[in-house]
Amino acid sequence: MSQIKKKKQDTEGSEQSHAMALIKNTGIFAIGTFGSKILTLLIIPLCTHYIATDDMGIYDMVYTIIALLQPIAVLAIPESLFRWVIDAKADKKSVYSTWLGLFAGLTAVFTAIFWICWLIVDFADAGLMYVLVVLSCLYQSFQYGTRGLHNNKLFAISGIVYSIAYCLGCFLLVAVLNVGYHGLLYAMLSATVVASLFLVVPQRELRSFAASGINGEVALEMLRYSLYLLPNQLSWWAMTMLGRLIIVGFMGYSANGIFSVAMKFPSALSMISNIFTPAWQEQAVMLFKKKGKDEYFSKVFNQYAILLATLLIPGVPVTKLFVQFAMDPSYFSCFNYVALLYLGAALNALSAFVGVLYMCAKDTKGAASTTVIGAAVNIVASLALVPLIGLMGAALGNFLGNAAILVARLKQTHRYCTMTVDWKRILAYGVIVVVVSLLAAGLNSLPSICALSLCCAIVFYFANRSSVKTLKSFLNK
């Protein structure tokens, strides 16, 4: 009996230490993410004051193309670096040498294709775009390599360093030298170089290369791993872009403008996912082959799902406050779609959580196939529903697409980890979110919306008491 009790105490102690490590890493990533986001937001008024709307449109188009070309240029190989380096038994020098040889080869192929395309179709800013794509891929690789070495503080600070360099570059080139939208691109280039040097100089591992260390078998495994990440990333891009095209095609640019504003609010929830997922990736890889992972992964998933769902309960009336009292009346209707979009973003975050299992097992084929399924569901649902119920159809399509991805991933990853999901509790909170959104939609006075927000905040606190307790114990240490 005493042995059973001792085993239970050891398990609880182990889970507590894992939780503390997860909270610590999440906090580190949060500081880096929020710090860089705030700095970047501060530069927006400057840009709008000195750059004409047409030029901003050109910059946005160039930036979008660069973002699209990044994973294509080197076949999403930077992510494979993190997965191989983080293995405790990995020969770090051999992994870096193999990755660098692979990166150089893929960059050479991309260079040839890019310049052939430029000769056929002469387009402006091609040279600058090429340099930005290659340097951005290199910087992203250094970031993944830094995380693989568990230098999370350095990784987080590098994001702030990038933002400071970018803001200073924007001020000098746009406000002082009046270079226009090119100033934003050159600022991005200089910030990428500065942040890359910030990561490379103090970490000798990132500079280690030996031709003799290149392992052909590992190179093929890394390439196979990253190849399936490419359709995964492109499917997300296509899902967003095609959704916009469907709205414009059936309802026009004005409706798309309202929907794009509505989509801004769930991006706050996406930022939470972007902070938590890197911390979870690191811990999941370390625990993946250990006993008791099923129980621990299930516990973290359920707590994370409940946190996201209950966060939306006060989030909906607070959004109503912002829409009602801070936005132009022509955009008031965007609130009608916020609840579904919030729930879709929560499902997206949970899909990312489950998707980490593919990375742990080095099986990215499943991640790609499930994303394609979700994209197909989203597009078909939007095509069918937008002509019938307008923007609500697009919001519902987004929700159904993300739900399809989550369900498919939970089913596929069952062979890696048997997670027990507390569906009753999670779905109950989802229903509460919908009810709160209906209540908020009928309220127009400031006191009534504030009262609803306060009640919802109380619900959030009591729903997450155990998580708050764990966080308090961590902060007290």
The backbone outline, from C-alpha atoms, is: globular
Our count of helices gives 19
Poorly predicted ranges: none
Q: Note the run of SSEs as H and E.
A: HHHHHHHHHHHHHHHHHHH
Q: What is the rounded distance between the termini?
A: 32 Å
Q: What can you tell me about this protein's structure?
A:
- By secondary structure, this protein is mostly helical.
- The protein folds into 2 domains: 43-225, no CATH class; 228-477, no CATH class.
- 83% of the residues lie in helices and 0% in strands.
- It is built from 19 helices and no strands.
- The chain has helices spanning 2-42, 44-50, 53-73, 77-85, 92-120, 126-148, 152-176, 181-200, 216-227, 229-251, 253-264, 266-287, 293-326, 338-360, 365-389, 391-412, 423-441, 446-463, 465-476.
- The chain starts with a helix and ends with a helix.
- The model has no long low-confidence stretch (mean pLDDT 85).
Characteristic terms for this protein:
globular, 2 domains, 477 residues, mainly alpha, single chain
Short description:
The protein has 477 residues and is an all-alpha fold.
List the helices and strands and how they pair.
Blueprint: H1 2-42, H2 44-50, H3 53-73, H4 77-85, H5 92-120, H6 126-148, H7 152-176, H8 181-200, H9 216-227, H10 229-251, H11 253-264, H12 266-287, H13 293-326, H14 338-360, H15 365-389, H16 391-412, H17 423-441, H18 446-463, H19 465-476
